Amino acid sequence: MSARETIVRVDATYDLRVRAGDAVQKGDRISDAPAQQVFAPVSGIVRSVQFDPQNHEFVIAILPTA
Amino acid sequence: MNRTFRAVLIAVTALVVAIVLANLVPAAESPSTRAKTDDLSFYQTSGTTAPYPLTSDKEVRNVILCIGDGMGSSQIALASTKAGGKLYMERMPVTGLVQTRSANSRVTDSAAAGTALATGIKTKNGMIGTAPDGQAYRSILELAKATGMATGLVVTSTITHATPASFGAHVKSRSSENVIAEQLLANHVNVLLGGGQKFFLPKSDRDSARKDKRDLIAEARQAGYVYVTSEQELRSTRPPYVLGLFQLAALTTEPPEPSLSTLTREAIRLLSRAGQASSNGNTGFFLMVEGSQIDFACHNNDAKRAIRQTLLFDQAVQAVIDFALQDGHTLVIVTADHETGGLTLSGADEKNPEPRVRWSSRGHTDSPVPLGALGPGAAMFAGTQDNTEIPSKIAQLLNIRPFPQPAQ
Q1: Do residues B67 and B335 make contact, with C-beta atoms less than 8 angstroms apart?
Q2: C-alpha–C-alpha distance, residues B343 and B298, integer Å
Q3: Beta carbons within 8 Å of B20's beta carbon, 6+ residues apart
């Protein structure tokens, strides 16, 4: 993980609205979770989406644009 | 160098290498545990497509509930295609479909689905063994235990993960795995096999995930449990209480761990004997077996791992069926808590027998999941049903009333 990356964790029950390589704007909704609406905290590029089985969460790494 | 000396040196070196290699592969290891993701040679189909026989209406003494986490019809079809024949779970004589929605969403998680399969009530995603208002409900495992039956949970996740937790714990959040560990032991579940040592170790241990000084492994021993961490120890242990934790977190499903089918066979051996030692003469048992990591693979949209995990789960189902057919008094139910990944298969024809694999989601879906049943009482599970009906029907067959049942 790059030191510049912003990490967002989200419940993996629901589908994601982003994939690796997508560009996101700050405030974009990034998960379908109805009860836990998660928005991109920064504008940037989604570098990776990994599944964390222990916590049943997606770990989304966003590289902020300058 | 002298030619004779060189020959002796080569022979000795070969012998040493052979001994080292032999020790790297334990003698007790089954072929299944040597498999890698791309290597499915560990799995052998039964070589027939015929369904297993419908058994007569004998008394139900044992119930084994097998849950493939995230396993929809397409996961089974894909694994079957790769295996080159029908899976064991595809030969169940009674089949049905199960609707999986939770109390607050069309798309369930494993906590709400596990709670439905264990307690017969709908709850919100994330909650374990409780109604949406927080009222705890007794699980079919707990109620079976109250009648004198032996009980067991076998998984490839942590033993405190959402599905096993639903059968032996009551918490508002699935993430409370430290509390779940305490409750599983307090419930005196006879056989607990899986991963998750870190939730049982005191915080003084560097591998611990606990925030207190409780050493649950020591507490389990004091309560009468035998604690094992290897296949060899498991095979030599005796009932009535066995805690087997084979990793700090989830199992790797690779050697030298015991495979899910080995864990299942050992659990059946232990529970059969634990039941015989029951004080009230009830010799039966309730066992839940979960192929936990089908879900993990499908969240990653990883078809190869999904196939492998489904076949590993099917091997465990085979072990269950072998016992049930011999015993004659064992009801077997194979189903899933939900589908993961929105997997569909298309495009296969005679020229290209490989199906095209498409994933429509990284999360769970609300697709109904398949159910197969075998043994006395199996006919009750035919057709389409809600997931809460499954433990209700089991309770009916075991004469457990009322059900669902709130905890006091």
Answers
A1: yes
A2: 8
A3: none
Average pLDDT over residues A37-66: 94
CB contact under 8 Å between A56 and B109, yes or no, is yes
Task: Verify whether the Cβ–Cβ distance B364 to A54 is below 8 Å.
Answer: no
User: In chain B, which residues have their Cβ closer than 8 Å to the Cβ of A16?
Assistant: 362-363
- Asked if the Cβ–Cβ distance from A55 to B363 is below 8 Å, we say no
Q: Which residues of B touch A58 (CB under 8 A)?
A: 299, 362
Nearest residue in chain A measured CA to CA from B249: A54
ipTM for the assembly:
0.93
Q: Which residues of B touch A38 (CB under 8 A)?
A: none
Best interface-test mutation with A: which of B293, B299, B364 has the largest number of A CBs within 10 A?
A: B299
Among all residues of chain B, which has the CA nearest to that of A36?
B125
Of B83-97, B143-157, B275-289, give the lowest mean pLDDT range.
Answer: B275-289
Question: Could you give the percent of chain B with pLDDT greater than 70?
Answer: 89
Chain A nearest C-alpha distance from B178 (Å): 13
| Catalytic-labelled residue, pool B80, B102, B110, B392 | B110
Contact: B300, A34; criterion CB under 8 Å: no
Q: What does the pLDDT read at residue A37?
A: 74
pLDDT tens column, B354-403: 899 999 999 999 999 999 999 999 999 999 999 999 999 999 999 999 99
Task: Give B301's Cβ-side CA count (13 Å radius).
Answer: 17
The identity of residue B333, as a single letter, is: I
- Domain A6-64: give its CATH architecture: Beta Barrel (2.40)
Given this model, what pLDDT does residue B349 score? Answer: 77
pLDDT tens, position by position, B200-212: 999 999 999 999 9
- Domains in chain B (CATH in brackets) are 3-397 (3.40.720.10)
Catalytic site includes residue B272: no
Structural contact between residues B170 and B129, judged by C-beta atoms closer than 8 angstroms: yes
- Output the pTM of the full model: 0.90
User: Position of tokens 């196939």?
Assistant: B307
